[in-house]
Design a protein that fits this description.
globular, about 80 residues, about 10% strand, 2 strands, single chain, mainly alpha
């Protein structure tokens, strides 16, 4: 089982860096593990720039290690579909 972390800023009650989402994201990563969480933007639902959607994960979620970020930001999806 995996989870897609896509279009999250569209569900935030606040603006960038979308602090209202951080605890929820943390719980999902803790429950599933970074190896089973797939980041995505869903540009059709973004209420922010694409850069902000990326940097919310890469710069604002201090609970994610560098290894976690590598997995969430693409390696997990690549591994899941056999691109690794």
């Amino acid at each position: 089982m995996t989870v897609k972390a896509t279009g999250l800023p569209g569900n935030a009650s606040d603006g960038y860096p979308f602090v209202s989402l951080h605890a929820h994201i943390r719980r999902v990563v803790e429950a599933f593990g970074a190896h089973r969480v797939f980041w995505g933007s869903d540009v059709t639902r973004l209420r922010c720039t694409y850069r902000e959607a990326v940097t919310m994960f890469t710069h604002e979620l201090d609970f994610l290690s560098e290894d976690d970020l590598e997995w969430v930001m693409g390696r997990a999806m690549s591994d899941w579909i056999g691109w690794f």
